[in-house]
Amino acid sequence: MTTLNWAIVGTGEIAHDFADAIRQVNGRVFAVCSRQMDRSRQFASECGAEHAYDNIDEMLRNPAIDIVYIATPHSNHRSYVIKCLHADKHVFCEKAITVNSEELQEIQALAKEKNRILAEAMTIYHMPLYQKLHTILDSGRLGALQMINVSMGDPKEYDPENRFYNPELAGGALLDMGVYALSFVRCFLSGPLDQILTSVHKAATGVDEQSATILQTRRNEMANVSLSLNTSIPRTGIIGCEKGYIEIREFSRADQAVIHYTDGQTETIQAGSTDQALAYEVEYMNRCVQGEQPEHTMDLTTDVMELMTRIREKWKMHYPFEKITSSKPEESI
């Protein structure tokens, strides 16, 4: 495989982890960018990058860069993706790729115009376990899917300025952890949603602190999604079918699932490795950019973003920097 030149925007923990994955799969990180040059240089030194920048426009003028990985707060994703696409770079952007469907449609259209690959860094789409589970479900041995239950809770210290609670940074549980939960749900539901019922508790800053959402498809499949920044809830996904249910713990990077059959028997399914979750993403993007396979996750990303947009509309909540084109009056945070 040809070694591609990856650039990383952002220097947080996930950026460091992803740099390790790039080096594992691809051999090297070519460039890094942070608004603070000292942080950029330190990150470059740690990951062996040849170039450090404190200005994304300057970085994007480097013609040797093939792919840009964006690991900044959600509120910056749209503007950085647009800059990268206009510079003719392929883009792999952390979840949530944008804050609403309108933004996603805009960058999708630009990626198509520029003939560049655009994808969201959603581990669930690339874990081998999920491919294996789809094969099992498609075989019919568990019967028809009936209900999905998924929960995520991770208590965060309340700080109006951090990315979890600051509306200017598109804070809240939905875009941070809910995108995982809803991506899990969308991977297994058969099709379009017919009903959405949801309730939310907002923090003092106005962002969603915890919520409960019920979804239903036209085939009467249902899903329950519980999210919280207030309490620790196991990251567990349950897929309930006619002849049993599948339990997946730590589902965002899972390499094991347990099938519980209605007769009391259990079966453990294993595939892939949790430790390789980010490496699977790098491998996928490399193959797409080199024309070895088509990009096939954006349809799922689009559906999930549409779902999150509809949920926030029901909460009558939008971020201060969002453009609202709906004819319905909305409540700003």
TrEMBL record:
The keyword Oxidoreductase applies. The keyword Oxidoreductase applies. Transmembrane segments: none annotated. Gene3D superfamilies: Dihydrodipicolinate Reductase, domain 2, NAD(P)-binding Rossmann-like Domain. Residues 130-246 form the GFO/IDH/MocA-like oxidoreductase domain. Keywords: Oxidoreductase. InterPro entries: Gfo/Idh/MocA-like_OxRdtase_N, Gfo/Idh/MocA_domain, GFO_IDH_MocA-like_dom, NAD(P)-bd_dom_sf. Residues 4-119 form the Gfo/Idh/MocA-like oxidoreductase N-terminal domain. GO terms for molecular function: nucleotide binding; oxidoreductase activity. Belongs to the Gfo/Idh/MocA family. PANTHER family: OXIDOREDUCTASES, TRANS-1,2-DIHYDROBENZENE-1,2-DIOL DEHYDROGENASE. This is Oxidoreductase. It comes from Paenibacillus bovis.
